[in-house]
Design goal:
219 residues; alpha+beta; 7 helices; 14% strand; elongated
C-alpha cells in the first residue's frame, strides 16, 4: 500500500508569513523615520515606497512635493525674510504673501517686482493639475477716501489680480477660484501694527490630489 501524500495545503502560509514580517519591518522603519525627518521628507519617502508598491496616487504626490521643493528653492530669500510663508499639509500647499511683496498700500495692481515671486509659482502650478484657491485678506483699518468702497472689495480685487497673472502665464482659469475676505479672517489681532501687517496678505492654496475645493466660508 502506497504512503499517503503529505498534506501541502498549508505551505502557502510560509511565504505569506515572510511577507507579513517584511511589511511589519517596513512600517516600523517608516514609524521611526517620522520622528527623525521633516514632514515633507517623510512624506516623500513614504510616497516613493507607495509608488514601488503600485499605490494609486503616489506618483502624483511625489510630483506635488517636487513642485513645492522647487518653489522653496527659488524663493528661499523671500521665505527667510518672512515676506512669503510656505506650509505643506496632507490636504494642501499654502503660500502666504505679505501684501507689500505684491501690492502697494490701498492698491489692487500688482507691483512690477511681483513677477519675481509669482513666476516660479506659476511654473510649478503648470506642472500639476491641482485646483488653486487665491484668497485676499486685509487688516481692519477703514478705507477712507480710497479707490475701493470696502476692505472686502480691495481683497477680492487683489485676488483677481493674482489670478489674472497666473492665467497670463498659462494656468487654466477653470482651475482657479478667488475669494475676498477683507478684515473678517485675521491671522493676528488688529490692535498692533505687527498684527495688521500679518493680516494684509494674499493666501494661495494648492489643493492636494483629489481634495475638493472649499466653498466660501469653509476653507
Amino acid at each position: 500500500m502506497s504512503e499517503k501524500k503529505k498534506d501541502n495545503s498549508q505551505l502557502w502560509m510560509v511565504p505569506y508569513a515572510d511577507l507579513m514580517t517584511c511589511m511589519v519591518i517596513l512600517f516600523l522603519a517608516l514609524y521611526g523615520l517620522s520622528f527623525s525627518m521633516k514632514g515633507s521628507d517623510y512624506e516623500r519617502a513614504l510616497a516613493a515606497m507607495q509608488k514601488e508598491l503600485g499605490v494609486k496616487g503616489a506618483e502624483k504626490k511625489i510630483s506635488e512635493l517636487d513642485a513645492t521643493k522647487k518653489v522653496e528653492d527659488d524663493l528661499k530669500k523671500q521665505i527667510q525674510d518672512g515676506s512669503l510663508g510656505l506650509e505643506v499639509t496632507t490636504s494642501r500647499i499654502k503660500l502666504t504673501f505679505t501684501a507689500p511683496i505684491l501690492f502697494d498700500s490701498g492698491s489692487a495692481t500688482l507691483k512690477n517686482t511681483a513677477q519675481e515671486v509669482l513666476d516660479p509659482i506659476a511654473a510649478s502650478i503648470l506642472k500639476m493639475d491641482n485646483h488653486v484657491i487665491v484668497e485676499g485678506h486685509t487688516d481692519a483699518a477703514r478705507m477712507l477716501g480710497k479707490k475701493f468702497a470696502s476692505n472686502r472689495e480691495l481683497s477680492i480685487m487683489r485676488a483677481f489680480s493674482v489670478i489674472e497673472y497666473l492665467v497670463q502665464k498659462g494656468v487654466s482659469p477653470a482651475r482657479i477660484t478667488a475669494f475676498g475676505y477683507g478684515e473678517f479672517r485675521p491671522a493676528a489681532p488688529n490692535d498692533t501694527e505687527a498684527g495688521r501687517v500679518k493680516n494684509r496678505r494674499i493666501e494661495m492654496i494648492i489643493m492636494r490630489q483629489a481634495q475638493t475645493p472649499p466653498q466660501e466660508g469653509k476653507s
